[in-house]
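Lab manual, section 2.4: Encoding a predicted structure.

Procedure: take the sequence of the chain (547 residues), apply the prediction step described in section 2.3, and record the output as structure tokens. A sample record is shown.
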Amino acid sequence: MQIVIFISGLAILLFAMKFMERALAGLGEDQLRQALETFTSTPLRGIVFGVAATGILQSSTVVGLITLAFVGAGVLPFRNAVGVILGSNLGTTSTGWIITWIGFQMDLAELYVPLLGIGALLVVAGRDDGKLQQGGQFVVAMGLLLFSLVLMKDSVGFIVDLVEVERLQSLPLMLYFLFGLVLTMLVQSSTATTLITLSAIGAGIIDLAAAGAIVIGANLGTTSTIAVVALKGSVLKRQTAAVHVLFNLVVSVSSMLALPFLLSLITDAVGIHDPQYALMFLYSLINLAGILLFFPVLDPFRHFIERLFPAPARRALLVSQVETSVPPAALKALEQDVRALLASSVLLNAWRLGILDARSAERKVLLAETPQAAYAELKADENLLSDYVLELQRVTLTQDQVRRTQQLLVCIRDCLYSTKAVKDVEADLVRFRLESGVEVRTFINRLLQSVEALYAHALQLLEADCCITADDFREMREKVRESHAASNVAIYQLIDQRGFRHDRASSALNINRELLLSAHSLINALQHFLLPGEQAATVSEWLSTRS
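Recorded output:
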């Protein structure tokens, strides 16, 4: 019967930890996302942040996933993210310290019942998904966690009945290390393994050396989740997982080799004789030592990881590295990809029209080798980004986030409308330049001068945080309309002067119309991107309200 109670206690422990993780994530994820952007400007601050955030959220997994999302979004530099990962390893020991102090040094029966009662009351009284309800869920999770420890403490003696303790304590330390590694991989929680080990050492079933080997194995086993997730992920995910695995591998191997010395240091030099406190001190010590070991060589370590998993030659979309389950990070990545899409479409249009200035010509290397290949890549990016927006809209978003996704979807579509309009008239423009007389070529050059000015202004807006208002965009549209009207007048004058045959005149009018549509589409995309408060409307919808 004791083994059934122990297994039940383990199951409740795992459930309580998962429940606690979700409750704390609901309470603190928004603040964590904001803090990630603010307080991780250097690797040292990233380490401190990783320790604090993991200690508060009681889950290195939550911190790691959100960190990964912001790295993928380009908001958090990979160098600083390495610091957060290292810090989260130390922060994850906080749960063990709390449970050692509360759970094994006090009468748990006096604690878990009030916690369960208070937590249940808060859950019932709070609004669905409100802070009060999430706080109640955390309190319930803490009560369940302490209750699970009561079950495991009272039933762990079944091991004594099944196995001779003397034989168990004579096993090689490597077997305990492997046990901690495998158990953590199975239960997906180094904290659960640590709490089980604390119960065993408290019951006298294993000694401090064996318990130390188990938690060292758990320290390595905790990397299995992120490693499996990253196997089919982006390069950035594999780089992040590699940092986690290699750091924990070096720390765990070094700790196993130095385990006798570390235990002697803790019990003799530091003077900690309580086996449970000594175990938690060891767990914290090996991760702190690992941080001190890696911190001076973070840059070479990062470069080694980047060489081990090199980024693809062509820039991958940032959204491919960010899960939509983290909306703020997803929107950051989406905005950066849309900005790049807008800039690329302007460059491609200028390339097709033959109006690339010297500075833009240098940036053309960001595009494919031919206009046709570049357009195909932009179309592929448009499809991927549109699909991502639709996927993002399926998760729970705030009203501001919903409005922003709609605006970015308009940006994506109008950006490609602009590019397609230019593509459709490229062949006619080439024929005019090759076959027409001086008057027609002069007209074409004058027509493209206004387009060139628009593109230069667009690139300037995308490259710098310029102060621009809706009135500025109205002025841009007015200039485009004036240029279009003047070009139409010039075309009819050329017809009267017989500078145009009727078929050429029709082509010229079509070019002028398509360039007008392209310009309006580009301006509309820019306005929706740079003015987040705008009501989302495609250029066709915008034109229809003014017809």
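Check your result against the sample. The chain has two domains: 2-308, 319-544.
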